Amino acid sequence: MDLWLKLLAFGFAFLDTAMFVTGQATSPTQGTNMTEESSAVPPRDPLLARTTASSLASISDRENDSSEAKPPSSAGTATVEVSPGPEDNHSTTDGTGAPGMKTTPLTLPADTATSTVAIPNPVHSSSPAASPPRISNSTTRDNASDGPTTFTAPSSLTTSASIFSTAALSTIAPTTPKPSCEEKYMDIPVNYTYTYNENSKTYSVMFASDVQCDSQDCAKMLQNLQECEHRTVNLSHSSCVPPFKQILLETPPDPTKFKLEDCVQPEKANTSLCLRWKNSGNFSCDEGKLTYSFQCAGKNSTPIRRVFPYDGKPIQSTKEKEFGVENLYPQHTYTCSSQVFYNHRAFANESKTIETDFASPGTPQDIECSNKSSQEGHVTWKPPNSVFHKFFLCYRSDGDPECVTLNESLTSYDLKQLKPYTTYHVTLHASVKGKAERNGTKAKCDFRTNAAAPSKVRNIHVSRKTDNSMTVTCTPPTDLNGPPGNYVLKSLIGDSEKKTYFNDTCNFLVKDLSYSTEYTFQVYYKNGQFHGAPESASHSTSYNSHALIIFLIFLIIVTSIALLVVLYKIYDLHKKRSSNLDE
Questions:
Q1: Are residues 160 and 32 in the same domain?
Q2: For the chain, what is the domain count?
């Protein structure tokens, strides 16, 4: 009976020697299913003989009511376990159409140390026809990518009457075909490392995976590369097959040639910031492949970005070397970082901490102006509630203003050498000095100095109008130094004051003076409170011309009468003489 069963199993094995069954080995559990996959195998494969022998031995054991595989007597054995699949507790059917069966690990002799022989358990509801044994051909896997090779050869040998079940034949699981190197390293990251010392500035290239470059060690081959150097390499590995992955390496420019600088205009530095990459040297790289990223953020504020993160593909890029932000808070600290990319790979980065400039100071409070005298004024104020470094105080009357710089600690100031009775306009503002000098809003006040004595009249002139009258004129004084007033004229003979005259203008007519007398005239301006210094001029009156004319007329008349009397006497004498002659 034992011999007949062995011959029957041997016959079934030869009926289907061209097929392999691939099983998914799981934990040794009775009554479960197994997945199978078949492929062609040579009829006279030495593995078949070993598999058949093992199967026959298993059949013999089962005839002796043995439920588990007996360990071999040989000392050198190896066991390889196959991890359970995701459907470990469910019956499955593979592409061969065999009903679900589960394999049980078996320890093989030393000559099959890399294989796991699975003994199939009887199928609970098998078909009347027994499944023929199937053997799967083996393919060696690379230990770097696919792990150790697994051999599994389950088979069910059940008759229509369920008289017996055969032991499973060994199955060799085929490995996944090796991918092409071009496919495997399609998106391999490339890292450029910059080395700087006194003698050289070079790049080295490292790959994220352990690959070879043109059958050489990449780490040794891709050393001491210069900036902007182009090199094409073929990436290969024992875990992949040709075609190899061809990659063009383009080293970035020298990062020491790039410097991040502050480009904000001083006038805008209090509410804006500006960063700019400056290239300090020439290079042969394609500048069209340069992109830049910027990011700035202040304390408790949302980051301000113009950035694309490095993940091999830019999300957003900018060709602009300059980055500016406006409408910021004055005197706030912002932390900014920036990177320069070449072919979407960062090669230069720098961070800066920027503090926006001072804000314009506030307005001085409670400013007051007053006069201290005719030539002095006094200004007081309270400082603004903001940062400032000094005050600017300006004052003017009618002309250009005069300005003085005051210490930030002052709260009052005296104005000196002012003009009397003059209105002054005063302005005061605080100033802060940062990247630019910023002035606050001006505070204003006005005051007028006290009155003072006016200056002298000018260009006094005296002229004789008649024999005993004079005209006195002058030019108004330069500074009246007070409210409107009048002019005063005094006439003097020697030191004796004779008469005083008043007029709104400096134009006097002095009458009824003494004839042929020298007079001194003093003129000054009086502004209502003070009179100025007098200005003097002297002049003499003439003789009385009317009296002289009358005297001359009287003298002529008297002379004429006397002459007539003389003529009459002569006539009378001549008449008497003629009478005497006649007699």
A1: yes
A2: 6
